[in-house]
Amino acid sequence: MTNAPVADQRRLLELQALDTRLDQLAHRRRTLPAHERVAELTRRAEELETELVKARTERSDLHREVAKAEADVEQVRARAARNQARLDAGQGSAKDMQALVSELEALARRQGELEDVELEFMGHLENVERSLAELEERASTIASEQAEATAQRDAELAEIDAEASKVRAARDAEAAQIDDGLLALYERLREQHGGVGAALLRGTRCEGCRLDLNASDVSVIRSAAPEKIVRCEECGRILVREHGA
């Protein structure tokens, strides 16, 4: 395509401005600081969840150990109680009584050892439950911060999306008024040149690549018919001449 109505060429600048704004909004959406905040809180929440699972597993294991230690102590106590009853009743020979006394002494020592084990497990359990309570409190705090950060991020995204929707509607309306061939050329160049397919020729400078064109190129451009589509010799973008000249 070599020619297009001057009005359509001028509309390219408004279309480009709208496309640039859409690109800016898309970039802003991707790079919101809120994304990093939510990601950091999510990472911390996941780390805390791992610690919580470990602590809860340890607590469960210790509960079983304490229960086993209590059962062992109770078993020894029950045996000692039976032996003490037999001893108090005086049933059996002197030798049997002496054996009962010896066994009671051994059971007392065993009971003491088992109670020490039970106390040790209970101490560990108390420490683990204290640590678990602290972890759960931290997890609750992180969850609250995460919810707040997510809500803030979503609100910012909604604001960006609302503006993008308005800009996109304006962009579609503008594009609908431009010659199809010119629009297709613009779209192709925009894809090739980092989102900018058309730029104003201000004096001798292309506002797309920000370079000054040489005098001969400018002379050729200025002498071209207003309907002729001209391109920047430096960057290849469509050049829109001021006042259509």
How would you explain this protein's 3D organization?
The protein is an alpha+beta fold and 245 residues long. The protein folds into 2 domains: 6-26 and 179-244, Helix Hairpins; 32-175, Helix Hairpins (Orthogonal Bundle), CATH 1.10.287. The chain has 5 helices and 5 strands; from the N terminus they run ααααβββαββ. It has helices at residues 6-30, 33-89, 94-175, 180-192, 215-223, and strands spanning 198-202, 205-206, 211-212, 230-231, 238-241. The protein has a 5-stranded mixed β-sheet. Helix 2 runs antiparallel to helix 3 (94-175). The protein is rod-shaped, with a radius of gyration of 42 Å. It starts with 5 loop residues before the first helix and ends with a strand. The mean pLDDT is 92.
Which characteristics define this entry?
245 residues, alpha+beta, Helix Hairpins, 5-stranded mixed beta sheet, 5 helices, 6% strand
In short:
The chain is built from five helices and five strands, in the order ααααβββαββ.
Topology, please?
Blueprint: H1 6-30, H2 33-89, H3 94-175, H4 180-192, E1 198-202, E2 205-206, E3 211-212, H5 215-223, E4 230-231, E5 238-241
Parallel strand pairs: 1-5
Antiparallel strand pairs: 1-2, 2-3, 4-5
What does the average pLDDT come to? 92
Low-confidence stretches: none
Beta-strand content bin: 5-15%
Shape assignment: rod-shaped
